[in-house]
Amino acid sequence: MSAIPGIDIASLTWFIAVWIGYTWYADRGSRRAHSLRAVMFAHRHEWMQRMVERDNRIVDANIVGNLLQSVSFFASTTLLIMAGLMTLLGSTDTAIPLIRVLPFTSKMTLILWELKLLVLIIIFVYAFFKFTWALRQFNYCSVLIGAAPNTPSPNVNEVYVHRAAQVSTLASKDFNQGLRAFYFSLAALGWFINPWFFIGATTLVAGVLYWREFQSETLEMLALTGAK
């Protein structure tokens, strides 16, 4: 580890800690009730209530189809990015001299360059697993829509509605975590400049994500729309 400067180790540790900490806070934290995820769960629950009341569920199938297209796009894009990073990893001898001549960049060694690329590859591998799992869960949600009961029993419908809404929410959670990986990968690019920029970019990304999920005008409008 002596080949890696202490500030680079510290910046990577900060990056991992912020990502894990923010994910815990956003998905399981005490303020989760006032978040995009919580508000959208209420809308998904209402969607499924309307779904079981409809005889024709083409609209619901189209909605799930649009969601599947979005997830598929990001899953495919992630594969292309990983392929590019693997190619770049094999072009180290050409890339390092180009990085060294850039202003404001820290000293780049072979092991440090490979570590930075490896971190990016791991991020996108994680994102790919999240997107593909979200894709499968949205497929399961489409099956639930197709199998939804047409019954006047409110008790049966309410149980089914809750389960269908929960599956949709779980799929959305994994999709959001994949998107979150994309945001943090932008922060990881700052590491190629210098570790201090990496720390600042990581903090900035976490701040932007927090504002969007907990303080944005979109959240307020969605909450008002869902208010009874």
Quickly describe the structure.
The chain contains eight helices and no strands.
How are the SSEs placed, and which strands pair?
Layout: H1 6-28, H2 36-53, H3 58-89, H4 92-100, H5 110-146, H6 154-189, H7 195-215, H8 217-226
Main traits of this protein?
8 helices; about 0% strand; about 230 residues; mainly alpha
- Order of SSEs: HHHHHHHH
Largest sheet: number of strands, sense, barrel closure: none
Residue share in helix: over 70%
Q: In DSSP terms, counting alpha (H) and pi (I) runs of 4 or more, how many helices? A: 8
Low-confidence stretches: none
From the alpha carbons, calculate the radius of gyration and give it in angstroms: 22 Å
Number of strands: 0
Structural class: mainly alpha
- Output mean pLDDT: 86
| Overall spatial form | elongated
The proportion of residues in beta strands is: under 5%
Describe the structure.
The chain has 228 residues and is an all-alpha fold. It has one domain (6-226). Helices cover 82% and strands 0% of the residues. It is built from eight helices and no strands. Helix 3 packs antiparallel against helix 5 (110-146), helix 5 packs antiparallel against helix 6 and helix 6 packs antiparallel against helix 7. The chain starts with 5 loop residues before the first helix and ends with a helix. The model has no long low-confidence stretch (mean pLDDT 86).
